[in-house]
Amino acid sequence: MVAAAPRVVVIGASEGVRITRAARLAGHYGVARLPAVDVLIRRQPLPAEGYVIDGAPQLLDRVAGVGGLLPALAFADLVVVLHGAEWNGTDEACRVLRYYDARGVLAAFPPGTPDDEIIMAVDAALRARTAVGPPDGPPDPP
Predict the structure, then answer these.
(1) Could you give the CA distance from residue 111 to residue 92 in angstroms, rounded to a whole number?
(2) What's the chain's average pLDDT?
(3) Is the pLDDT of residue 24 over 50?
(4) What is the pLDDT of residues 65-80, one digit of tens each?
(5) CA gap 58, 122 in Å, rounded
(6) 101-125, pLDDT tens digit by residue?
(7) Closest CA to 76 of 134, 14, 18, 4
(8) CA of 71: how far to CAs of 15, 45, 47, 83, in Å?
(9) Which of 17, 48, 52, 128 is the most exposed place for a label (fewest CB within 10 A)?
(10) What DSSP designation does 141 have?
(11) Is 30 within 8 Å of 15 (Cβ atoms)?
């Protein structure tokens, strides 16, 4: 069973695609979509009833620092990545993504993946995480 109000973070380089995917996921789950800039800069509190946060890969650089997206990612049920050709696997964003992949909370898709396929895969990943249960407490920073 999928959590009634999942906490999902969508990371992608193409702003239009990322925002569209995040909005559709938020609508699917009936939760708020928050731009990462609101969480990072405006310090908007995270809703207790679930959320979908969307942000560019450059914002992942802030995860390693104090604050930043760490609270959102630490308690996220799933981090969805829309991979682009510009990610070469050596930058800070990729290091952070590898960390969350090792924790089992990462789902990656090409940006052109149809919405319904992403929603089905995210549903399946969330069901799997619910069945196994989240790791104890928030992760150590990457």
Answers:
(1) 20
(2) 79
(3) yes
(4) 545 556 667 778 999 9
(5) 23
(6) 888 889 989 878 899 999 999 999 9
(7) 134
(8) 22, 10, 12, 22
(9) 48
(10) P
(11) no
